[in-house]
């Protein structure tokens, strides 16, 4: 209010306050949805030794995610007397918060599906091993693209250029490496952050498409083929 939104009304403030409050309450509900059933299943002896390790890791990650969220929000409330920028949370902490959420979600889904769906016993052919390695590489690329999106959001970098495929009138903007030292541009220059996100996004879609085309040459179970097809559909929609 002091730095930016001088004319904000109490009603407008309540709107963003309730958005933040709902997000916190939802996060706490997620934490209870993990911890309470886990404690019950543990007490009843329904968890195997390996699964106990998974449960502890997931519950720990839920708690860590909450602490990281608080740490992120705190950065947006700190006084920055040497900065003339508009108040915002640290893009580094925002990316960490999003990254840990993606890890938590993926680990939860992987654990749940491993219990619900028995693993296919397939012959370890050279093609299948290559497909698995390529799938892991594509996963890492998508994760990196999502993290770069957090930097775009944290720096409001999406407002810098709104044309595609060019950025303004150029393929490569003039201010791509305006900051010094050069490494700062990757994380703090809004133009570079948006440029990187575009390149990573295009690379992710290309990698998913290549993964799909490669999977068509291999005899795969119906469930696996459906997963690869769904991945391509979601990538195109995204």
UniProtKB/TrEMBL annotation:
Pfam families tied to this protein: COX15-CtaA
Main location: membrane
Membrane-spanning residues: 25-42, 54-73, 93-117, 138-161, 197-215
UniProt KW Transmembrane helix keyword: yes
GO (cellular component) term, any one: mitochondrial inner membrane
Alphabetized UniProt keyword annotations: Heme biosynthesis, Iron, Membrane, Metal-binding, Oxidoreductase, Transmembrane, Transmembrane helix
Reaction(s) this enzyme catalyzes, per UniProt: Fe(II)-heme o + 2 A + H2O = Fe(II)-heme a + 2 AH2
Listed cofactors: heme b
InterPro entries: COX15/CtaA_fam, HemeA_Synthase_type2
Record protein name field: COX15 protein
Organism: Scytalopus superciliaris
């Amino acid at each position: 209010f002091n730095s930016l939104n001088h004319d904000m009304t109490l009603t407008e403030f309540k709107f963003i306050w309730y958005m933040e409050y709902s997000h916190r309450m939802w996060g706490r509900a997620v934490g209870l949805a993990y911890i309470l059933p886990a404690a019950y299943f543990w007490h009843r002896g329904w968890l195997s030794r390996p699964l106990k390790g998974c449960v502890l890791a997931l519950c720990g990650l839920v708690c860590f995610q909450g602490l990281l969220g608080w740490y992120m929000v705190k950065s947006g409330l700190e006084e920055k007397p040497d900065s003339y920028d508009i108040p915002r949370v640290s893009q580094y902490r925002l990316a960490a918060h999003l990254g840990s959420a993606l890890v938590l979600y993926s680990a939860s889904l992987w654990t749940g599906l491993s219990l619900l769906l028995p693993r296919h016993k397939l012959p370890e052919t050279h093609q299948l091993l290559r497909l698995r390695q390529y799938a892991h590489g594509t996963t890492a690329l998508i994760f990196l693209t999502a993290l770069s999106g957090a930097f775009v959001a944290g720096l409001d970098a999406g407002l810098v250029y709104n044309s595609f495929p060019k950025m303004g009138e150029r393929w490569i903007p003039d201010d791509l490496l305006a900051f010094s030292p050069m490494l700062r541009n990757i994380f703090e220059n809004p133009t570079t952050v948006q440029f990187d996100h575009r390149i990573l996004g295009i690379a992710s879609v290309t990698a998913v498409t290549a993964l799909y085309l490669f999977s068509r040459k291999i005899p795969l179970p119906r469930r696996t083929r459906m997963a690869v097809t769904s991945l391509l559909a979601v990538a195109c929609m995204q």
